[in-house]
Amino acid sequence: MNTAAKLGTYVLGLAVVFGGALGVGSAVGEVAPPAAEESQGAAHSTETAAAVREDTPGGLQMSENGYTLTPLTSTIRPGEPTDFQFKVTGPGGEPVTDYQVQHDKKLHFIVVSRDLTNFQHVHPAEAGGGVWTIKLTLPTAGAYRAFADFAPTGADGLTLGTDVLVAGDYAPKALPPVGRTSTVDGYTVTLDGDLIPGRSSKLTLKVSKDGKPVTDLQPYLGAYGHLVALRAGDLAYLHVHPDGAPGDGKTAAGPEITFYAEVPSGGDYRLFLDFQHEGTVRTADFTAKAAPAPAGTPAPAPATTHGEH
Question: What is the pTM of this model?
Fold first, then answer.
């Protein structure tokens, strides 16, 4: 009998340790630090903390900038459709009900297994009172990561993440090997370009069917394709930007879809491309390895028209 793997508690935070308060001695002969020096140190700490927050990939935290993602559904059984509910609360603790529309939706919801072999990009409905609901089917037991990608009205965009556990015997799968070709429902998607840590990397994905280039891709959520990149290990969620948009007079409807991605570190990443053709959305997936570029390799020119995923 297979031994059931134990689903442990996953702690995915990045700790930033700030300097403690600077005590001022009152004994005779002790000299207090100049006020200007204290202010300069405090300002430096604040700037450093802000830089760390800015550089932290999305999805590693369930709370950020006062906003919190809270699941309301606790029981999910493998293979059974479940009305999964969650809410997002704001800095004052009240449910967030006012969102900016991005790519035709107020909120994008991505659920991926922690072994990065199962991926779903879905769009919940508002149930009232700040609650979101989606009919979610998770195929197997195990640990999943759910990401809410949104921008509250008047605030910057955020990606918050939370773990979702499905009870049952669990045997994680190995990460699929690195490759540049993915097949799905008779379509072949090829990947051109490399992930270079710390800089914008141009990735071009080419879609074909039955050996012929697909030149009539259909817009899906305001673009010809949506690409999600996740770092293996901690499942850091990376925003990826498409180059151009349908109807801008210069972006072709295939076969090529170009994106610009910036990964924070070397290592393995999983790439998931959603594209629509003949009325159906399909997902192609790749494993890619990020490595430093050879010395002297020029960085790609940034895209002229960017849209956040």
Answer: 0.79
